[in-house]
Each structure stands twice: as C-alpha cells, then as structure tokens.
Amino acid sequence: MPRLLLIEDDPETAKAITAEFADAGFDVTWAASGIEGLDQARAGQADVIVVDRLLPGMDGLTIVEAVRKDRLRTPVLVLSALGAVDDRVRGLRAGGDDYLTKPFQLVELVARIEALLRRPGESRDTKLRVGPLELDLIGRSARRGDRSIGLLPREFRLLEYMMQRKDQVLTRAMLLEEVWNYKFVPRTNLVDVHMGRLRHKVDEPNEAPMIHSVRGVGFVLRAPA
Amino acid sequence: MRLPDFTRTTTFRGAVAVAGMFAIYMLLLFAVIYWQTGRYLMARSDAVVKMQARVFAAASADERLIAVDQLLQQDPRGVQHAGLFAPDGRRIAGNLARVPPELTVDGPAQAALVPVGPNGAGTQVVRAAAHSVPGGGVLVIGRAVDETMQIDEIVGGTLTLGLIPAFCLSVAAGMLLSIRAQRRVAQVNLSVQRIVAGDLHQRLPLRGVDDPFDKLATIVNGMLERIEALVQEIAGVGDDIAHDLRTPLTRVRVALERGRANARTLEESQAVIDRAILGLDQSLAIVTALLRIAEIEHSQRVAGFGAVALADLLREVCDLYEPIAEDKGITLAVEISARPTVRADRDLLFEAVANLVDNAVKFTPKGGAVRLSLRDGDGEAVVRISDTGPGISEQERDQVLRRFYRADPSRQTRGVGLGLSLVAAIVKLHGFRLTITPGPGFVAEIAGPQPQ
Predict the structure, then answer these.
(1) How many Å apart are CA B184 and CA A58, to the nearest integer?
(2) Which of B150, B169, B188 is the last residue of a domain?
(3) CA-nearest residue of chain A to B418?
(4) Would you say residue A174 lies in a domain?
(5) How many domains is chain B partitioned into structurally?
(6) pTM score, whole prediction
C-alpha cells in the first residue's frame, strides 16, 4: 500500500483528499502544519508527498527545498491557490516534481500522484510493447499484431507517452503538458479530438479496445483482457 | 519673533542669497574701482608736482619767485604748497616753513606732513617733491591729495544709490515669487484634496502660460487621466465578472435545488451533480482566465524571453488544431514566406497564436478556411491569422479586445470570451502590435520587431 504524506492546513480539504486517496488504496498521513509536515517528510516514511504552498507561517516550497537538501528523492506534488504561471516554474525549480493549482479535481490529483509513483525509469528499450501493440522508437513505426498502423508524428508521440504509462489514468491536462508541452488549458476539446484520431487507428471495429475513456477524468491504455 | 511663512520657502531664501552675493560682488567691484582710481590720481598728482618742481627749478631766480607766488595765488582751494629755501634752510618764498624732513632732494614725489591753518596749528598730508635749485637751495612743491576724498564721496554715494535698492529689489522679488509659488501650491493642494476625497474628474489648475508649474500640472493631469481610465476599467471589469459569474452560479443553484427536491434515483442525482460541477468549472475558468490576464498585464517577466523561431511555432499550433479543423470540415493552412525569429516568451506567444486559431476555428462555418501566414514586413515579423467566418464590424473591433466581450450577442458559443483580451495582454507584454481588421472574415495580425 503506497504511503502518502499530505501537508495541508485546511481540515476540510485535507479530509476530502484523504478519503479520495483511501479509496484509491493509499495509506494517508495528514500533517496540518508546516513544521509537523517537515518532520514527517524528513522521517522518510512516505512514498509520495503532497504539499500545499500556502501554509500558516511557512511556504510549502521551504519544505520541498529542505527535503531535497536531505537528499531524499521522494516525489513531491505542490498544491497552490495562486493562479500564477511563474509559480509553477518556481515550484518545479525548488525540487517539486509536479504542480497543481487549486481548485483542482480530486481525480486529477490522484491521477498525477499515481503517475509520479509509476514514473517510467530511464529505459534503453527501443521497442515498447503493450499486449499486441508494438511501437518501434527507432524505425518510428507501430503495429498491432500483424497490422501495421500509420501514425502522424503527433500521434506517434501521444501513443509513445501512453504506452510508457500503460494502465495509468492520464488526464487531459497531463497530456497537454507532457505531450504538447502546452502550459494552459484551452477551451476547446483538443485532447479528445486528438485521442479520437489515435483510437480510430489503434482500435479497429473488430478488435478489442485498448484506449479507454475514463469519464470525467481522461484516458487509459490497457492490454486487451 | 516668528517670521512670515514665505520666508521659509526656498524661492525666498534663494532670492535673499542671490541678493547677498550680488551685494558682496558690488562691494568688491567698488573697492577695486576705488583703489585703482586712487592710485591713478595719486600718480598723476605726483607727476604734476614733480614736473612743477623741475620746471620751476630750471627757471631763472626771478622767474622762479614769480612762479611760486603765482602758483600759491591761483589756488582758491588751498591745496597748493610751495617753498623756496636758501642753502642754509632759510625760507626765501612760499608758504612752507621748512623743508619737510621726509623728502629727499631730487628724489621721487612722496607723502609729506605739512603744517596748515593759522599759526600752523593743523597738519595735512600732501604729495610733495623737492628739487635742488641751481646755485644752491631747495625748491619744494606740494599738493594736497583731496581728490581721494572726493572719490570716497563719489564711490560711497554710488554704492549707496546702487546697492541698497538692488538688494531691496531682489528681496522683494523673492518675496513675490515665493508668495506666488505658495499660492499655486495651495491651489494644487485644493484639487488634490478633492481627488483624494474621490472626485477623480478633478484636474490640477492650468494658467495657460509656459512655466514649470504648468508643465508639471500637465504631466500630473495626464497621469490622473490614465488613473481615472484604469479605475473605470476596473469598475467595468468588476461588473462584467459579477455578471458572467452570476449566470453559471445561478444555473448551479437552480440545478441543485431542483435536484434535491426531485431526484429519485442515484442516476438522477449524479446527473444533477454533473451539471452543478460543469457550472462551477465554468465559473472557475472565468476566474482563472482573469487571473492570468491580470498576471500577464502586470508582469515584467522578460526573464523567460529568448529567440523564438516563428515558423516552427506556427507549425506546432497548426499541428495542434488540425484534427479539430478537419472534424469541422475547415481547411487549416500555414503559409510561410520568411523564417524570422523574435525575442519572446515562447509559451506565452504560443498561447496567443493558439487562442487566435482557436477562435478562428470556432467561428468559421463548415467548408470555410483558416489561414496562418508568416512574412517579413520591413524588418518586422508579421503573423497573420485569417478566416472565412463572419468577421466583426468596425465598431466591434475595439470592444472585442475588452474583457468579456463576445461578438455573439446570444452568447451561445462556448467559451469564456476572454481569449482576445488575453491575446492583447500577451502582445502588449512583448511590445508587439496587434491589429484586427474588420471583414471579410476575421483577420488578426501580430507584428514584432526582429532582433538585429
């Protein structure tokens, strides 16, 4: 059971986050103040840390910096109520691994935490495989079983990202940030349209679907059962 | 004693200081004139005395006696002194009792003390010269230097006449200027008090003359105008926010209220909740967009600026929007006739172009086209986004850049209506130019200088 340390001063928010992560199978420790949170984080028991930036008497980034100074590599996600773009950069520079602006969807937070825990390591494989799906990173080609799939470069990038994170729920914002390097949420259903194209090519009508929509959250790539 | 207020102003103090310096300068000037004139007159007097002594001594004995007598008789002011002395020191003629002991015979003219008045009661300083007489004896010619006293009078008189009025005038001018300046300050203060009290229409009074005070007032008035415009804008934005937030929030409230009363099954409840979440997300999107615009408008972030290759950026935007355009049956094309780079924040510029393309795709009907083009126009890189949609009218053009304005009055198109103001804010931050041309279709251009 992954252990999550939540450093958040608002009890109501903390309660909702704790419940959501408990449902997702996490063991959550809640620290209501920065000092308590820093002690817990330094103890090194957590697998992943969620820290609010605005804590009474302390900036959440101070905790991140202190943890990194102790050479702890625990992944950290920084939460912030500030709607500033530069804050994101500052948060990541301080040693945070991801950044989420309040108010956020709980499912978005869970998806990101799971992504942090299952971050793909440095892989030397030149071929990615998920079930019958195979992606040749050198030859830039894709096939499903015996069928060759013709992909545009942007579709290739998207599929590569999803195959590296099979069985993980990927939110629209995550895809935009990581695949398109897009720092804001556009108003139109961009991701859905791109995903529709890719799905059309990967899952033919007579095949078992591999790309699934997760209602209200995003998408997931799974090997057919 | 407490001095009047105006004496404490810098204008007045400056005037007094200038007057004082002027007075010192005058005194020095007059001292030099006095000294120079005195020296000149004395030298002339000395020359006369010396010449008379020499000429008289050179004459015959009889002529010499007559000359001495005449010299003394033709002297109504009593400044002439003369004495002809025998070799044994006895006086032969003249009004001097003896040879003044200070004099050297045949030497230069110099100052000597001679007795004057009845019975030689007083003494007088004269310039005198002694000359030896052929055949023995000494001739002394002296002249009282009363010219220096006259100069004293003249110089002193002129000094009093010139200096005192000049000094008084300076001080008076200082007082006048100081009082005038204080009056202007008082007027300005009155206006400022009204502005502070909330009357932003108030402006500083102008005299219509070309003085520093007027210039300053003009500058401040310009600033006040800008502040007034900003305050009004903020007030307008506040109204807009209230309006645009009220709509989705009202929907949420209504949906929840009806759902609580009517939902019978779990599915019905979830449908209500989904609608409520959608409404809240819309409200949050408005707030987020506003915060972003405010952030961009007030940021000085040039740290993230670098060379941005516009051709690549346009291709990426196109790549992002191609599927959507295709789904809608719209042609999306990029025409690149130059490959300029600009100094910019890549993410923000991408956002601006993406927003314009997003809009274009949204408003262009099926079968239409959206075109992105990049060209070099007089050293400026020009990005142009045009579509075959309905475009906007000339009147709408300025309004469209204002926050929350949507060309669609029925507000049926999705979106928050902040896109164009966001683009405007980003373009302004870069110091680039945004032009929106009315019809046919919607044409937007972003022009930025290329670094040399």
Answers:
(1) 51
(2) B150
(3) A187
(4) yes
(5) 3
(6) 0.62
